[in-house]
Design a protein that fits this description.
single chain, Growth Hormone, Chain: A, elongated, two-stranded antiparallel ribbon, mainly alpha
């Protein structure tokens, strides 16, 4: 008897499976938000150099009312090739003499330019703050913004390798509890980070423990389901994560401050942690690890929730299932199997092509919002 034959005895799609899947709805949605959260928290607004003569309020009061503010800015900041104010350079001294209309920042070699030594002014018409505006991750420091994204992806990669091994060794439920707790701690801690390097470390740990949640949630759902139900359950899990992507956009309409945004999508995991008390460990994992008594208890609890009163399952049935699972686990697959099988080969090529197309579409549709107000937040 294989493990698949045991599930009809306890109810293969009963109340227990539905409740356990519903338990993971909120966690998967909120995990989905963290994949795209830096589209908001690391938003790069239009910016320019801070000009003491204009951006100092007391100095600005002395400027004649006949002079236009935008025109004055062009005396202190050169224009780029698109005719917009340069983001990372300014004139060393005001260019009171009028410049030719076709002169831009690319052909100002005869004029002295300097970096933004006094800080930047950021447009706050879209978001009031982000990690970029708080820590000035622009111009020469913009690589630090990319570093946080890179560390997040490295954390996900290592998480799939390490957390997968740990969940196989110590069980899905306990690794899920650990992942919930540490993910809540580090994602909430990122909202209070005072240094960009601390924030980057938190992003790495967020990606690492996020994979523990994804792996264990998926395992606890799939290993309580028969083969024919796994495909629709996979679609449901993917849709929940996609809802998290949409949730980021909805939240961004009401929350423009990055720390509040980070906190709102992170703090709920402390509550989600409390929902684990009733979850049952995967009986498949218990059987493979020769914990037959515990597996029998889990199956009987599930049968009780599903309204199955008979107790026909025995240790002998589980021993038979253990032999089947042990023989199946002896099969070792490698990355080469992705191209050996014709079906998998086609799917990998299609997914790679779709990913390449989406990446290029995103690059084509990328745009920058022109500053509506030259005055904004100043960060030194």
């Amino acid at each position: 008897m294989a493990f698949e034959d045991l599930l009809p005895e306890v109810g293969e799609q009963g109340r227990f499976q539905i409740l356990q899947t519903l338990t993971f709805v909120l966690p998967l949605i909120f995990v989905g938000t963290h994949f795209l959260i830096e589209n908001i928290t690391a938003f790069v607004p239009p910016h320019r150099c801070w000009v003491p003569f204009l951006d100092n309020t007391s100095a600005l009061l002395n400027v004649s009312e006949n002079l236009n503010y935008s025109s004055l800015l062009k005396l202190f900041i050169p224009l780029d090739s698109n005719g917009k104010l340069e983001s990372c350079r300014r004139f060393s001294w005001p260019q009171w003499q009028p410049l030719p209309p076709n002169v831009t920042g690319q052909n100002l070699s005869h004029l002295d330019l300097e970096p933004c030594v006094d800080g930047w002014v950021y447009d706050q018409s879209i978001f009031t703050s982000s990690i970029v505006t708080e820590w000035n991750l622009v111009c020469d420091s913009k690589s630090l913004k990319s570093l946080s994204q890179m560390l997040f992806l490295i954390g996900i990669l290592l998480g799939f390798l390490i957390m997968g091994y740990l969940s196989d060794k110590f069980g899905r439920k306990w690794i899920l509890i650990l992942s919930y707790f540490l993910f809540a701690v580090f994602s909430t801690g990122a909202a209070f980070a005072q240094e960009v390097l601390v924030y980057n470390c938190f992003r790495f740990l967020i990606g690492f423990f996020m994979t523990g949640i994804l792996l264990c949630c998926s395992s606890l759902v799939m290993e309580w389901a028969t083969i024919k139900l796994r495909s629709p359950l996979t679609v449901v899990i993917s849709l929940l994560i996609s809802l998290g992507h949409l949730f980021v956009g909805l939240l961004s309409y009401g929350i423009q401050e990055w720390r509040k945004f980070q906190l709102i999508v992170s703090a709920p995991f402390f509550f989600i942690l409390l929902t684990n008390w009733w979850l049952l460990e995967s009986p498949r994992w218990l059987i493979v690890n020769n914990k037959l008594d515990d597996a029998l208890k889990m199956l009987r609890k599930a049968a009780k929730i599903n309204g199955k009163k008979d107790k026909s399952l025995t240790i002998e049935d589980l021993k038979s299932a253990m032999k089947k699972e042990s023989s199946a686990s002896q099969t070792h697959n490698t990355m080469l199997d992705l191209v050996r099988s014709p079906i998998l080969h086609r799917r990998v090529l299609c997914m790679s092509f779709i990913g390449w197309v989406l990446h290029n579409i995103r690059r084509i549709l990328k745009f920058t919002v022109p500053p509506k107000n030259p005055s904004g937040r100043h960060n030194k």
